[in-house]
């Protein structure tokens, strides 16, 4: 279980949220600028709260007054809002980045579900937006994370591709029950993917 309690003063308001994510998909839903990315960055350790506590199972990522656990020790898979791939690396090298070994057989199930096996030798400029998105998701999953953070992972895709990727994400989650925190501002997507929806506005959770 991921336990999140964050207080952080931002430019225009104070982020103050408290919630848990069990082995489920929790959607963080809210307007642009409401603090969603800051929540994900805090869980990943890219920024730190002013106070609060972030804990995954028995691992304390952050606690007021303690030295935060470094990002590399947190076992967090993070798909950024602009899921940039490394342009000079092949798909295989992109996915292998951050993995212990470069043996793709470890991630075969992920490649199969996402249908990107045939793209391994291609470079990012040679593949479509939807394929890039799948590769970025495979890269986030390849490190076998204990928690997955997805920041508007599907927003750049056309409707048909987005629907297919939503199904793939649900399939991956069925195979691999870990806490997933997913940001979207698409209501249909939130309803389809979420076990629970947290609505956020100006840094606080609000009733839907
Ligand atoms: P969202 O992802 O919901 O669009 P963000 O978390 O990116 O929102 O940003 C929320 C607000 O906090 C924005 O107004 C942004 O300018 C501000 N902000 C983001 N990071 C910091 C920071 N490290 N310090 C102060 N303010 C920040
Ligand atoms: Mg954001």
From TrEMBL:
It comes from the Bacteria. Pfam families: ABC_tran (PF00005). Keywords: ATP-binding, Hydrolase, Nucleotide-binding, Transport. Its EC number is 3.6.3.30. The keyword ATP-binding applies. SUPFAM superfamilies: P-loop containing nucleoside triphosphate hydrolases. PROSITE patterns: ABC_TRANSPORTER_1, ABC_TRANSPORTER_2. One of its GO terms (molecular function) is ATP binding. It is an enzyme of class 3 (hydrolase). This is Fe(3+) ions import ATP-binding protein FbpC. It comes from Aneurinibacillus soli. The gene is fbpC.
